[in-house]
Design brief:
Blueprint lengths: L2 H36 L13 E6 L4 E9 L6 E12 L2 H4 L10 E12 L7 E10 L3 E10 L11 H17 L3 H12 L1 E2 L4 E2 L3 E8 L4 H26 L6 H20 L2 H9 L3 H4 L11
Antiparallel strand pairs: 1-2, 2-3, 3-4, 4-5, 5-6, 6-9, 7-8
Length: 294
């Protein structure tokens, strides 16, 4: 296949993944709206929040995305963002990207979200999936759960068990070897070395995922998004009905500090975005709205 044909194939695949990520963004936004409307007024007396979208354009390279934002009564702060771009890796970054030694130009599409609930009984959650292609194309992403209260932070706690089961079911549908590999990768990635502790209870994390079958890998990535939407909505609906104490709220706020520390010190997506001209507003929407350090 000629270089021209390879570039056309990458553009077509990027267009298809972009459509999927934007459709998933809309569905997640609609689910957030629905949960906001369903919340009991006795625990959440304010007006329900609404998911709002704001397009943006990259200041460098070609592309942009759609930022999705919510400030609500259940979801104190949520960001669900999509992006698509054409760019060129720096020589330093090209060394770490498959296929970039042959062609440092790339096309990409992605969805990324972070949800910080108001109730400390409802766990924080993060999910992202992406497609990126240089001379080689691949998928990456995953989903991880961060309960903030001590009685929920065990791997055997009900929310953790349900979340892991959902991610395992997706992986097992394609290859039983994937879940133990991607679960371990998640545990290793979302770890704060300076605190010697995990950020949450994990989930799955994968990168440079290229089995040689684009359709299969794309289907897997779609199923990760579907599984996330299903399992987190169930957990949020169940947990939002539980009252909480001021002590639990205080614990939530200082646990959020760990989120800030990880995202600014270690998160590769944050570092990548800063270097490649991503939208600062969407990138930093991962920061919790209120935080404390004990």
């Amino acid at each position: 296949m000629s270089d021209t044909d390879l570039k056309a194939l990458a553009e077509d695949r990027r267009a298809r993944t972009k459509v999927w990520f934007e459709s998933l963004q809309d569905r997640i936004g609609a689910e957030l709206d629905a949960i906001e409307a369903e919340a009991p007024a006795s625990l959440y007396p304010a007006e329900p929040g609404r998911f709002e979208k704001k397009p943006w354009t990259r200041p460098t390279g070609v592309g942009g995305g759609i930022g999705g934002f919510m400030r609500g009564r259940v979801f104190e702060k949520a960001g669900v963002h999509t992006s698509a771009a054409n760019g060129r890796f720096t020589p330093e970054m090209a060394q770490t990207m498959p296929g970039a030694d042959k062609d440092p130009n790339y096309v990409s599409a992605s969805i990324s979200l972070i949800i910080h609930p108001r109730s400390p009984r409802v766990p924080t959650v993060h999910m992202n999936t992406r497609f990126l292609s240089t001379a080689q194309g691949w998928f990456g992403g995953g989903a991880d759960l961060t309960p903030v209260l001590g009685d929920q932070r065990s791997q055997d706690a009900p929310d953790a068990a349900e979340f892991h089961a959902a991610m395992k079911a997706v992986c097992d549908r394609y290859d039983p070897a994937w879940h133990p590999k991607y679960k371990q990768w998640c545990d290793e990635y979302f770890f704060l070395p300076h605190r010697n502790e995990p950020r949450g209870i994990g989930g799955i994390f994968y990168d440079h995922h290229d089995s040689g079958d684009f359709e299969r890998d794309f289907a897997f990535t779609r199923d990760v998004g579907e599984a996330f939407l299903d399992v987190y909505a169930k957990i949020a609906r169940r947990r939002m009905l539980e009252p909480w104490t001021e002590a639990e709220r205080e614990e939530q706020l200082w646990r959020r500090g760990r989120y800030v520390e990880f995202n600014l010190l270690y998160d590769r997506g944050t570092m990548f975005g800063f270097k490649m001209g991503a939208n600062i507003e969407t990138m930093l929407s991962s920061m919790p709205p209120t935080v404390a350090w004990p």
